[in-house]
Amino acid sequence: MIMGERIIIESVKDALAVASTIVESAEEEVAWLLQPALLVFCFQFGITNKSKMLIEKGGHVRGITKVSGTYLDPVRKLLDNGEEVRHIDQYQGAFMLVGDKKESISSINVNIEDPSLDDPIVAFWTDDKAYADFLIATFDAAWGEAVDAEKRLQEL
Question: What is the pLDDT of residues 109-134, one digit of tens each?
């Protein structure tokens, strides 16, 4: 069995840079699970523009986050870009982004209330397809339990 390359990422800023690269290189699909406070950085790093470009080329972007009153505008903008977004009530700090089911970045504990770019994290980047398959299976299970973000926005 051949294992892909693996790198440990140690800051929010570096994790966002890696996520941006993954989205930019994706040709078909991106799936993400993200803490809502980090959505703002996704806009600042241009990740959402890259997602929009992928969608305009016929790609597909799905995301899961906790939709709350504080983050209504970023979620609306994602929906306007054509991303499919779902809401989960009990966000537990997991973070993942998978591009084309082959390249990913993930972390199991990114519970930062008021994140800054220099905050330390421990995230894992790999191009191991087996790991990406595991993350997508986990994402799909969460997706099945999550609520459509549009419905959640109407409730708020």
Answer: 666 667 778 888 889 999 999 999 99
